Amino acid sequence: MPNVTISVPEELKTEMDKFAEVSWSEICRNAISGYIQARKNPIPQIQLRGKEIRPYFYHESGYPGLFVDLLIQNNMGFEIVVDRILYNVRFDIKGKIQGAGSDVDLYKRVVGANSVGVSQFFMKMTKDKIVFLDQYIEKTFQCRIECVIFVEGFNAPYRQEVYELKIPIDEWKEFVKSTGLMT
User: Fold this and answer.
1) How many CB atoms within 10 Å of residue 62?
2) Is the distance from CB of 66 to CB of 53 less than 8 angstroms?
3) What angle do CA 103, 104, 106 make, to 5 degrees?
4) Under 8 Å between Cβ of 81 and 72
5) How many contiguous H segments (helices) and E segments (strands) does the chain have?
6) In 3-state terms, what secondary structure has residue 145?
């Protein structure tokens, strides 16, 4: 079996020495093997969950829109770098899907091995779109966010629709009122 040399910080080596019974070569072999197996899949093994969505109007800038928080679950045993995320937000109103808008998150973020990262974005909405959507909204409604996530080192993006987020009718009506579009 060929030998491979790795370098670790002095502090880590001190901690490793406390576990004399551990075969660090075996630990490294398993970690490298797991990494290679995960990377053979062209699509990263991640999952999205909705955390929060809320309408908001920036009075200073004049931009109405939606704040969205999504959780990115990394199901792999190594950290990943999310390069960019594309979003397409739609509302499920009276059983019909109405497009609200699209946005892109270009902020690179590292998500640790088997841990959760956060994506937050503000999607601007045109006033015409708000007026159009408001004529159909009568009660709390569900939002659907189609996401395309690009992860460095993977050939194909991860795609998922997040649909568990809802906007309460009172929040929506207050939002529309804050824009000055409705009286």
Assistant:
1) 11
2) yes
3) 155
4) no
5) 4, 8
6) strand
Burial 160-177 (b: 16+ CB within 10 A, else e): eebeebebeeeebeebbe
C-alpha pair distances (Å), 23 with each of 2, 13, 16, 35, 90: 16, 13, 10, 19, 52
17 phi/psi in degrees, rounded to 5? -65, -20
Contact 133, 56 (CB under 8 A): no
Using CA atoms, how far residue 15 sits from 24, 29, 113, 174, in Å, is 12, 19, 20, 56
**Tens digit of each residue's pLDDT (9 = 90 or more) over 124-182:** 998 888 988 888 898 999 999 999 999 998 889 999 999 889 999 999 999 998 887 66
Q: Which of 32, 180, 171, 51 has the alpha carbon at shortest distance from 119?
A: 51
pTM above 0.90, yes or no: no
Max Cα-Cα span within the chain:
77
Phi, psi of 157, deg, nearest 5: -75, 160
